[in-house]
Structures are given as C-alpha cells and as structure tokens.
Amino acid sequence: MSAVTVAAFKDLCVDAADALALGRFWAAALGGRLVDLGDTSARVDRGDSRAESIWVNPVPEPRTAKTRAHLDLRLTSPDPGPLVAAGATLLRTPDDEISWWVLADPEGNEFCAFPPRPGAAAGVVELVVDAGDPRAQAAWWASVTGGTVGPDTGDPWASITGAAGFPWDYWVFNAVPEPKTAKNRLHWDVELVGATTPDALVAAGAPVLREPDDDVRWWVMADPEGNEFCAFAPSGTMDG
C-alpha cells in the first residue's frame, strides 16, 4: 500500500427516497443550510468547509439493510428531544453499556448522539464505519489519505486522525459480526491528490466499479471490504 497521500476526503453522500425531505432533516440536525439543487437532489452545508457538506441524492431502490456508515453527533441540548422533534426516531437510550443515544433519521439511517461536554464543540464528532477487520480497514484508509491510526488498545474499533481533508475529530472503523450485503446508503467521496486518474488507489487494492461516462465524471470504487466511494480528479482538471 502507498505511504504517500493519494486521496483527500471530499464530502459525504446519502441516498434517499425523498432527498429534499431528508436534506431538511439533516440541515436542522446539524444547524446547516439546505441547498435545493433543482433536480430533486439537495446538499446540506455547514460552516465554510465543503468537506462537511452532505449531498442527498434520490435513488429508486428502498433501504434494505442497516447503513454501515453513520455519524456521531455532540448535542447542544441535554437530550435528543430537538432531533426527535425534527423527525428522528429514538432507538436506544443510554444504559449500562452505552453513554449515548441511538437514533434514526426519517429514512431509517441510524446515527448516535452524545450529551454536551464542557469545552467540546457541538456537531459532528466522527464518521463511524462498520468493519469485519477494523484495524486493517483503518490502516488501509490511513495509508491512502495520510492519516494516523490510533494505538491498539484491544477495543473492537480502530480510529484515524489527520486524514487529508477530513473535517471531524475521528474516522472510526467499528467491528461488527455481519458482512456487507447491500450498497451503502451513506458513502464518502475523495479527491485525488497529485494525479488525474485513480491508478494509485487501484494499486493499493481499490477496484473500479464504474468509470466516468456521459452521466458521471468520477470513478466509483470500493475499499477492501467493499464500501463504495467516489473518486474525483482534482478540481479544474476534468470537464463537466
């Protein structure tokens, strides 16, 4: 695998049956701004960093499996009541095993909400991805984005800090027993670094699932555990 940064985190994308409705929820949940893109898709912007944007894209197929990537949020309120009022469903409350709430957005995508903490900013804390081998997944993504994998503490997860372009505190890979069975409803995009084709990602072990064509100007790829992601040539190097 490459020891050179070949890709930078670009943004998140989520599939939706009703992109505008789901976009409105996430704009409210994150204190962001909803952008109606005029083609039944939407984008949620937060702050000045485009890497924090979430593109919400309409798809015809329904959600059929647990979403294998999710966001963890830090609340401004003492409980997730405002999220529930905005349309989230509460799935689990803090108990002897966890200190956070598990919720689902209006289309059933799960996410976690943590209580406020002095000195900690509210909003997205981390991106969490289910994995069969968390340390291998973290090591792979760190190798292509220039991040650092945290020490092995024996916990069933591994985390990356310092990945190129990554806008949040941690990129976490969490062990789960079940394999990936369906296309992820939430995925991330990367922008290529120092190249206009994803050859370095392919050499590192990411297969190309779809080449740029008349409909898309990016490559659809998959990481070693099959998580789909999109790779874009650097801004200004491709038409369209």
In short:
The chain has helices at residues 19-30, 81-86, 134-145, 199-204, and strands spanning 7-16, 33-36, 42-45, 54-58, 69-74, 89-92, 101-104, 110-114, 123-131, 148-149, 157-161, 170-175, 186-192, 208-210, 219-222, 228-232. The chain is α+β, with helices and mostly antiparallel strands and 240 residues long.
Distinctive features:
240 residues; alpha+beta; 2,3-Dihydroxybiphenyl 1,2-Dioxygenase, domain 1; 8-stranded mixed β-sheet; 4 helices; 35% strand; globular
Structure description:
- With 240 residues, the chain is α+β, with helices and mostly antiparallel strands.
- The protein has a single domain (7-196), classed as 2,3-Dihydroxybiphenyl 1,2-Dioxygenase, domain 1, CATH 3.10.180.10.
- Helices cover 15% and strands 35% of the residues.
- The chain contains 4 helices and 16 strands.
- The strands form 2 sheets. Strands 2-3-4-1-13-16-15-14 form an 8-stranded mixed sheet, covered by helices on one side. An 8-stranded mixed sheet has the order 6-7-8-5-9-12-11-10, covered by helices on one side.
- The model has no long low-confidence stretch (mean pLDDT 95).
Write the SSE topology:
Elements: E1 7-16, H1 19-30, E2 33-36, E3 42-45, E4 54-58, E5 69-74, H2 81-86, E6 89-92, E7 101-104, E8 110-114, E9 123-131, H3 134-145, E10 148-149, E11 157-161, E12 170-175, E13 186-192, H4 199-204, E14 208-210, E15 219-222, E16 228-232
Parallel strand pairs: 1-4, 5-8, 9-12, 13-16
Antiparallel strand pairs: 1-13, 2-3, 3-4, 5-9, 6-7, 7-8, 10-11, 11-12, 14-15, 15-16
